[in-house]
Amino acid sequence: MTRRGARVGQALLVLGFALVLVAVVEGRWWALAAALGALLAAAGLVLSPLVRSRVRTGGRAQPSDFPHILDVVRRAHGGLAAWAVGLEHGEIEVAGAARGGGREREDDAEAQLHRGAAIVQLASVDGRVHVARQAGATFVAVGDFPYGAGLLLPQPDVSPGVAEAAVEDLRRFVAGMRLAELEQPEAQAQLVAKQLGALAGGAQTLEGIARAGAELAQQLCQRGAVVVLQEQTTRSYRVVALSTAADTRLGGLTLSDGAPVIRAIQSGIPVVSRAGEDIFGPGLPERRRRDREGTAYPLMDGHFVVGALVLVGPSIPQEGPQTDLVGRLILELGPRLVAAQAVHEAEQRAVRDPLTGLANRREFERVVYHFRQDAQGGGHEPATLVYADLDRFKALNDTHGHAAGDAALRHVATVLLSQIRDGDLVARIGGEEFAVWLPRAALHEGLEVAERMRRAVETTTWRWSGTPVPITASCGVASYPDPVGDVMNLRAMADAALYRAKQAGRNRVEIAGGSR
Asked: How far is CA 14 from CA 11, 25, 36, in A?
């Protein structure tokens, strides 16, 4: 429309000049007046689009202007130096003329520059106003992640009014940086990718990348954020990362069916929790009421939904810069999480039993091997090994089928896991046999754990096809350095103790090298 108006205006301009010439030759004043009017109208048609275009393109600073603008801000406040961070083209540092005083003064000035840059970096991350006073100067910095700007003022006792004036100018400068970069082609995508990479800090693990995504969502929306992923092997939905403002009780939680966040993952459509409905579903007692509402955005890899980014609290506006940035984050985060999840699952397959999800024999032997290396190197920490074997498991398989046997093994794995400490290891090492490794546990502690596991297996009801089926387990316990003085003999001694438990009637615990 602007170009068409300019062309019409130019044509009328030519016609207007022609009419002026005719009017002058003919001497007709009314024609001259009409021609001048046409000339002015044409000029308006030509100039107005040009002015509008100029206002649109020239009203905001371009990234290349910021070093000069920052220096103007510095001089306006009498600053010794100024900094800006977060721009695509790199950091900016401007400084006034160096003051004399020799090598020592130069070193002090260099240290001030480094400290000022560090304070601005901090402000760019936490978004707070920083006023730091030191001998001979005051640092003032503001930030709006990932942007930050700061000044070094020459007075150590800057008045609140002077500091506030500097803060206001720096805030306007930071806002200008954000607007300038957002107007560049593909700026939002580049900005979000840069922010996500900065927060991840080179992390390649699934948890590290998910945590970076949650933290960035919190920075963009000023509310807690949670990343939920679907576990491909178990088809369950698990919280894998939280931002600092989210409820820490959610960490590692496996969500129940029917939760709004699961509906978002299954449908591929954002879901906002309704009044009184917990976005993470039931089963979370004593949650703060304000934490119950939230919005779940599906995380996509191409056409496949892999999880959800949940923003806790009231929903953000449906349109606006904030919504656009969250959309960019979702597009950026989904494929990164899929790549990390593929690596994570490959690593887990190497060390996990696919049926129960416990550690496999290979992982168990690796852990024991490292303990043996430490012991041979002079380490004296105790450790206990418990072998647990299901009683009459073949009869269970023959009676109820192999599907029932598999379900029973998964049930027992869950029971054993519920009885151990953080840092202990439960592994399925073959068939119906489990190994429980208890580092820093002497014999009496290991014996207590083994008895607790045996009772839990016996008393925890397991049903198959609606019918309770009794399950019991026998355990053999061996401890280093007492009574087993050589780590190499731990497994053989635990196996011998397990054999005695079976021979003594099953559903009991025996210890290596003696009777109970």
From this structure: 5, 17, 12
DSSP 365-409: HHHHHHHHHHHHTT----EEEEEEEETTHHHHHHHH-HHHHHHHH
Q: Kindly report the CA angle at 318 between 317 and 319, in degrees rounded to 5?
A: 90
Cα separation, 455 vs 415, whole angstroms: 10
pLDDT in tens, 493-510: 999 999 999 999 999 999
Peptide bond preceding 483 in cis form (omega within 30 of 0): yes
HSE on the CB side for 35, CA within 13 Å?
A: 19
CA distances 233 to 285, 342, 467, Å, are: 28, 11, 27
What pLDDT does residue 54 have? 41
Helix, strand, or coil (residue 63) = helix
Mean pLDDT of the chain: 82
Q: 437 to each of 242, 363, 431, how far by Cα in Å?
A: 30, 11, 18
Q: Which residues contact 261 (CB under 8 A, 6 or more apart)?
A: 228, 237, 255, 271, 279, 280, 281, 294, 296, 308, 310
pLDDT band with cut points at 50, 70 and 90 for residue 185: very low
Integer distance in angstroms from the first to the last C-alpha of the chain? 95
Q: Please list, in sequence order, all residues whose beta carbon lies within 8 angstroms of the beta carbon of residue 87, skipping any fewer than 6 positions away.
A: 63, 66, 147, 177, 181
Matching residue, tokens 């503001």: 142
Report the range out of 33-42, 247-256, 420-429 with the highest average pLDDT. 420-429
| Residue appearing with tokens 């100039």 | 47
Tokens 């029971």, residue located: 415
351 burial type by CB count under 10 A (0-12 exposed, 13-18 middle, 19+ buried): middle
**Structural contact between residues 454 and 507, judged by C-beta atoms closer than 8 angstroms:** yes
Q: Which amino acid is at 447?
A: L
